[in-house]
Amino acid sequence: MASTESNIRRIGCLITAAALLVCPEISRADEGGISFWLPGQYSSLAATPQVPGWSLGTIYYHTSVNGSGNVAAAREITVGRLSPNVNVNLNLSLTGQADLVFLAPSYTFATPVLGGQLAVSMASVYGRNAASIAGTLTTAIGPIVNTRMGVLEDSLVSYGDLYPTATLRWNSGVNNFMTYVTGDIPVGDYSPTRLANLGIGHGAVDVGGGYTYLNPATGTELSGVAGFTYNLKNQDTNYQNGIDFHFDWGVSHFLSKQVFVGFVGYAYQQVTDDFGQHPILGGYSMHPTARQAGTPG
Q1: Residues 6 or more apart from 50 whose CB is under 8 A from it?
Q2: Which of 1, 46, 128, 149 has a Cα-to-Cα distance from 223 of 20 to 30 A?
Q3: Which domains, ranges and CATH numbers included, belong to the chain?
Q4: In the chain, what is the greatest distance between 2 CA atoms, to the nearest angstrom?
Q5: Omega into 279 within 30° of 0, i.e. cis?
Q6: Per-residue 3-state assignment (H helix, E strand, C coil) for the chain
Q7: Between 111 and 139, where is the model more confident?
Q8: Could you give the percent of the chain with pLDDT greater than 90?
């Protein structure tokens, strides 16, 4: 089985993947407000080596999130409630709630590969996702103006996409380096006419690399991971998200071998615009953000 540090990392990745599926305010330009990559997915201990062998990460995750404005209007257009050619004046809110169980079996090889440590994993999810849009929406096509008030609701109990990941790590004293490739295999339950989905409706490939400084003598740790996400076209909606760049970081101090406290954060920049069927959303950026974190063993 993997070490405590490996399990901490694995649980953290599962939590962020769960939030990715249901959080409509993760990225305001990607289709429906949902990106493949969740900022902050890699943080503390990102590049440190693992113990060889099999491991299974299991987690229950509950969340309740909110979005508004263009994200809510785009979802109405996507599910076919509005024409993409209308002029929109809106006062809408989009809410989502989920109860999910993630499973992520992984295997870390004992035999070095290119002088480093290779690990592979495959994660997926099962659970309930619910979403609703409430508020007032005014649309205009030429001289015809229509105002809509009310609530649209949807819920789903089903399975999500598959998330394969391969990492290669190298260690040299207090210095640790890693490269990774991950992605989304869109086999989860998804329909463009639903508000609530457990799949994102398109494939994605994400590649990147990172560094971790870990000094056991002082308990000091800092990590940084950067990467790019290439999104494949959603064939159901004829829409393709732009290429995203992300940088995640973490700084922490170990109080014991199993407990550390610190901060994690991220910067996120979409480097190319979305394209395809309307509504087309332009490039965007997210300012660097930090939050405090503490992890029990």
Answers
A1: 2, 3, 5, 6, 108, 117, 119, 169
A2: 1
A3: 4-60+99-122+161-295 (2.40.160)
A4: 72
A5: yes
A6: CCCHHHHHHHHHHHHHHHHHHHCCCCCCCCHHHCCCCCCCCCCCCCCCCCCCEEEEEEEEEEEEEEEECHHHHHHHHHCCCCCCCCEEEEEEEEEEEEEEEEEEEEEECCCCECCEEEEEEEEEEEEEEEEEEEEEEEEEECCEEEEEEEEEEEEEEEECCEEEEEEEEEEECCEEEEEEEEEEECCCCCCCCCCCCCCCCCCEEEEEEEEEEEECCCCEEEEEEEEEEEECCECCCCEECCCEEEEEEEEEEECCCCCEEEEEEEEEEECCCCEECCCCCCCCEEEEEEEEEEECC
A7: 111
A8: 41
d(CA 286, CA 265): 11
Look at residue 12 and tell me whether its pLDDT is greater than 50.
Answer: no
Mean pLDDT of 91-106: 83
Comparing CA positions, the residue from 62, 49, 68 lying closest to residue 134 is 68
Measure the CA–CA gap between 28 and 25, rounded to whole angstroms: 6
Choose among 106, 114, 101: nearest CA to 21.
101
Query: What gap in Å lies between CA 189 and CA 202, rounded to an integer?
Result: 11
Query: Using CA atoms, how far apart are residues 42 and 15, in angstroms rounded to an integer?
Result: 11
**Confidence check: pLDDT of 119 > 80:** yes
The identity of residue 19, as a single letter, is A
92 in Cβ contact with 132 (< 8 Å):
no
Residue type, 141: I
The tokens for 19 are: 């939030």
Q: Taking phi first (over 0 means left), then psi (-120 to 50 degrees means alpha), and beta for anything else, what does residue 53 get?
A: left
Q: Using alpha carbons only, what angle is made at residue 16 by residues 232 and 11, rounded to the nearest 5 degrees?
A: 125
In the beta sheet, which residues pair with residue 244? 229, 270
Contact 205, 181 (CB under 8 A): yes
Residue-wise pLDDT tens digits, 249-269: 999 999 988 888 998 898 988
